[in-house]
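Allow me, if you will, to draw on your knowledge of protein folds for a short while. I have a record of one protein: its chain in single-letter code and its fold written as discrete structure tokens. The full record is reproduced below for your convenience:
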Amino acid sequence: MTVIPVQEELRDYAARVEARLAALIPDADPETALISEAMRYSLLGGGKRIRPYLTYAFSRLAGADPEAALDFGCALEMVHAYSLVHDDLPAMDNDVMRRGRPTCHVAYGEANAILAGDALLTHAFSVLANTAAPDGAVRRATAELADAAGYAGMVGGQTLDMLTEGKTVTRETLVKLQRLKTGALIRAACRLGCLSGGVFDGELYTAADRYAEKIGLAFQVIDDVLDGVGDPALLGKSVGKDKASGKTTWLSLLGEEGARDYATRLTDEAISAVTPFDKEGRLAALATLLLGRNK
């Protein structure tokens, strides 16, 4: 099996995503320029672009048009960016730093941040609707992203997160919460890669789901660990907020060693799910990279 230099490829693809995202944000009328600026501030503020890269990785296995896969991934990244803007609001997580700079509501005011998030969410579906892809793929991708972002996905997970704040929850509830809040968009990223190549079901689609489920949960386990023991300078945001708000996390439930061991088992299961398809080792290398990240 060929070993892909995934860290370098991820960095290069992130730059490509950044350029395409910049081109996809429309120029606004002077009267609404502030919202366009807030959208750009939130969307183009850096980030590893892991979700679009997952779309890209699975699109290669599905034989997709690279440009269709890129726009699918960019639409998903707009939804992700909107979710961060709204999660950071005072009514939600009340975060003041994101990726090493003030959050959108700190920089532009709370009302403008809400509107910028709304605009990113709706524009994502405009991007999807105008993507060149196989027959039926755009419709399926639109439904998939809507489901992943909505009450049965990310929004549902955020709701559950708020309802359980300050309460001790079971391991099963924590798994459900994080499969919705974090895992739903990661699953959508993998599925969109398949859909961009016209793969709507079958063994590859099933493997994408299994891989997404495992790395999505592993990603959140490591996030929980970093919130407790990570370096704020590397993370670009404050740490310790989960403990301060009384949230049950994988760190509080299992301890650091136990949480890292659990993330390792999940990563191994993710790699096993895609081994028959991952001839270049791209997905295995990405899962391993995410497991060992420090930011």
About this structure: Residues 6-289 form a domain with the Farnesyl Diphosphate Synthase fold (CATH 1.10.600.10).
